[in-house]
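[worker-b] picked up task from shared queue
[worker-b] task type: protein-ligand structure
[worker-b] ligand name resolved to magnesium ion; SMILES cross-checked against name lookup, match
[worker-b] sequence length check passed
[worker-b] input payload:
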Amino acid sequence: MYALLSGLVKYMLQKDEYYVLILGLDNAGKTTLLERTKQLYNPGYAGIPMNKITTTVGLNVAKVDIADKNRIIFWDLGGQTSLQSLWNKYYEEAHGVVYVVDSSDPDRIRQSQEAFDQLVGDSNLENVPILVLANKQDRDGCLSVVQVKEVFNQSARRIGPRACKVEPVSAVTGEGIRPAMEWLAQTLVRNSKHRPPKRRDIS
Ligand SMILES: Nc1nc2c(ncn2[C@@H]2O[C@H](COP(=O)(O)OP(=O)(O)OP(=O)(O)O)[C@@H](O)[C@H]2O)c(=O)[nH]1
Ligand SMILES: [Mg+2]
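[worker-b] inference finished, payload out:
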């Protein structure tokens, strides 16, 4: 009986941790998205004022509890061309990828798709689910989610059978982030036969 109860308590004090990379070109809105996600899921969190966010050179890490038993550790990397060569150092550990696209910058959409094509073709990301966020939907005249999908469909062969979804969001207003993150959390759980989570005591 004691063993049963202590096992139950231990289970209740554990969470499954999934590591998710936030990637995309510089200025796509990755760090803004991370800050907004932290605010949405941690009501007491005031966060960094949006106008104080500057280009990422190192790495921003944040723990977010999306569902009761599931915790996502986000790794937000810098998107500048010189920093993209560091992305693949994290692929082996990643359970998922959030790829952020600046929908208000049609001039760089092709460049964004090319960087995406390279990452989906990397064997260390095989079977890893990908959430593509068509960000900055609050901006007038931005590309619609359908237009972003048309461009990213060119990577269809490399995406293969893995779970991949394109969702419209605004990191500034927060619109669309919750449904997108909930899809991601469910998909990470469904994909755990390929990339099992790390079970950890709650801290
Ligand atoms: N209008 C609007 N602006 C946004 C949105 N998301 C980000 N921005 C702006 O885009 C700029 C770049 O945002 P960051 O979050 O620093 O972009 P990043 O992708 O982290 O850039 P790097 O760290 O250089 O890779 C900032 O001025 C943000 O305020 C959005 O949803 N709507
Ligand atoms: Mg950044």
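[worker-b] attaching auto-annotations
[worker-b] The chain has one domain: 16-192.
[worker-b] releasing lock
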